[in-house]
Structure formats: C-alpha cells, structure tokens
C-alpha cells in the first residue's frame, strides 16, 4: 500500500510517498481502508521536529481519519467489516491508504456525514469544544474573542461559541477571512492588520474587557489580549501558529484577576476518554442541527501531502484541508 513516510525531522518537503507494508490489526484493533484524512497544524510540526512529542523514525504522520473497516482482530466485537468509522490514531500513521487503530479511539460515523467532514471534525472542533467547555467554562451571554478565526480550529471556536450562547468577536488578518468567520456566526469582526485590536476590544465591550479569549496564534496579539481581559476572564492558550511563543505578563494577571489556561487536547483525550466521548456526541448533535459545519478549503491526493502541510504551516488555509488516497481522488 502507499503511505507518506517521514525518514528524518526536516521540512515537510522531505516527506516520501512510497510503498510500505500493509498493517495487520493486533489485539483490540481493527484495520480501516481510509477514505479521507484531516490535515492539522501539529502534523507539520511533528514532521519538522518542532512538536512536544517526537515519534521514533521513520514514521507516518497524521492523526484523524475516516474510512471503512476491512479487518477485525480476534475478540473485537464493537466493529465489523464494512462499518464506516471516524478514527484518532494513537500512534500517528493516518497519512496512508490503510491504518490500524485501537477500538477505543474509533467512533461510528453519523449516517449522513460525508467522509471529508468526518475526517475533519475531531481535532479542530474537538479542541475548540474542550477548550471552551471544560477549560474556559464559557457561559451563555459571555463575550468570546477568537484569534485566527478563519483557520480550522478558530472557525470551530466561532461555531461552538455561538452554539454555547456566547457573543463572538472574530479577529483575522484579512477582510476575506473575516467574511468567512461572519458566515459561520461571528457577531463582531476585527481586522488586526488595519484596526487597533486593543482599542476595538475596549469599544466592543464598553470598556469591560473580554470574558474568554481563544488564542491558537500566539505572538504579539497575546500580550494585547492579556491587557484586554475582563475580571475573572480566561485566556485560553491553544497554540502558536504565528511561530512566536509569547511571554505572559503575570503582573497583568494579578491586577486584572484573569486566568491563563492551557489547552492540550491530546492529553485530555488520553486522560479522560469518557468526557471526550460525551463531547463528541454533543458535537455530532450540533452537526446534525447545522450549528457546527465543516468548511473544507481543499481536498488533495495523498501523494501531495507535503504541499498540503506547507499550506497549513504557512497559514494559507481557511477552515480545513483534507487528503484522500490517490485512488479515491480518481473516482
């Protein structure tokens, strides 16, 4: 079978698309013929050796996928050959034509959900959901600021914030990105390239400040947000898509009485699978009610994975980018 292989930690352009041995499911696993793969920012960081974890080389990147079960290990009763499933690999390996996955990291696909949506829902929306619900304790009527609001996880936060009853302020670097955030439910828009973010936040909140900030970007905007928090606010640290890890001005946390809250979705899934499963059922419900939807920027063949990752790392994707096995792309 074909797969993407990372032989060394290096720029994503060094990835190889080549034949590898087809995996066999071990105890507690099933094998899935992949129909679609979600491309995520951490995938590129893993390849380049910049992520918190460093897999043993060589490895196949990729975590979230959707497909059809084609083999079941002895003793597995939860899934059968032919089942349509969503998976979150616990040992990467999703950038391939087939993957083996532990049954506890699989979910049955909603019947009406396309494979491209299924492969894109878990990480971005799962991260935003966990961040706003468990970590941010977002309440109806509160003000939520989403930075990078047109990216995969930013757009998810806009949608989920609205589903949870918040007033959502979307901040992006272009008017086109803001238009996408508006189409997905944002109440207020700030272009932080042409508008002064702190002044706009003060105006939009009547000087009170922001209750919850969702920040997957980092960089200079983090400091601005720290200076724009409401009392008892929660500044959610999601990631650093800007490439710059900011410093926390702890004196501001003291005088403004806000909390900086870390969000590490992968650790949450491993630590609390029951809550993760409950979250996913709520997400599926919002999807069926059209409160949560997937904006697929582009679908590319698996052989073009390096190109897909470069676009994601360079922040050139609105919503999500999906890979499909080359044979699927040719249907």
Describe this structure in a few short sentences.
This protein has helices spanning 41-48, 115-135, 152-163, 175-183, 197-204, 220-226, 250-256, 265-271, 273-288, 305-313, 326-329, and strands spanning 2-5, 16-19, 29-39, 64-72, 84-88, 98-102, 106-108, 143-147, 167-172, 188-191, 210-215, 229-237, 259-262, 296-301, 320-324.
Description:
The protein is an alpha/beta fold and 331 residues long. It has 2 domains: 2-109 and 295-329, Quinone Oxidoreductase, Chain A, domain 1; 123-266, NAD(P)-binding Rossmann-like Domain (Rossmann fold, 3-Layer(aba) Sandwich). Helices cover 33% and strands 26% of the residues. Helix 4 links the parallel strand 9 and strand 10 (188-191). Helix 2 (115-135) packs across helix 3 and helix 2 (115-135) packs across helix 9. The longest helix has 21 residues, at 115-135. It starts with a strand and ends with a helix.
């Amino acid at each position: 079978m074909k797969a993407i292989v990372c032989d060394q930690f290096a720029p994503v352009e060094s990835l190889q698309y080549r034949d590898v041995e087809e995996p066999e499911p071990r105890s507690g696993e099933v094998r899935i013929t992949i129909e679609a793969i979600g491309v995520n920012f951490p995938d590129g960081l893993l390849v380049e050796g910049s992520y918190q974890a460093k897999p043993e080389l060589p490895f196949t990147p990729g975590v979230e996928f959707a497909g059809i079960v084609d083999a079941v290990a002895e003793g597995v009763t939860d899934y059968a050959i032919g089942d349509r499933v969503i998976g979150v690999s616990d040992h990467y390996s999703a950038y391939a034509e087939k993957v083996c996955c532990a049954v506890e990291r699989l979910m049955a696909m909603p019947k009406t959900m396309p494979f491209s949506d299924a492969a894109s829902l878990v990480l971005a929306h799962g991260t935003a959901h966990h961040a706003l619900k468990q970590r941010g304790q977002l309440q109806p009527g509160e003000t939520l600021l989403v930075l990078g609001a047109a990216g995969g996880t930013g757009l998810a936060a806009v949608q989920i914030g609205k589903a949870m009853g918040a007033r959502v302020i979307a901040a992006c670097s272009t008017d086109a990105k803001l238009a996408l955030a508006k189409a997905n439910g944002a109440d207020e828009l700030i272009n932080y390239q042409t508008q002064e973010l702190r002044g706009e936040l003060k105006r939009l909140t009547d000087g009170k400040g922001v209750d919850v900030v969702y920040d997957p970007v980092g960089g200079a905007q983090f400091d601005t947000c720290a200076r724009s928090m409401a009392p008892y606010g929660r500044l959610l640290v999601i990631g650093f898509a800007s490439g710059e890890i900011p410093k926390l001005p702890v004196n501001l946390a003291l005088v403004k009485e806000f909390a900086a809250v870390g969000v590490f979705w992968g650790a949450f899934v491993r630590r609390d699978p029951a809550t993760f499963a409950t979250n996913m059922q709520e997400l599926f419900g919002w999807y069926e009610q059209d409160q949560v939807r997937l904006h697929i920027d582009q679908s590319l063949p698996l052989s073009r994975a390096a190109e897909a990752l470069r676009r994601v790392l360079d922040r050139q994707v609105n919503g999500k980018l999906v890979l499909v096995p080359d044979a699927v792309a040719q249907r």
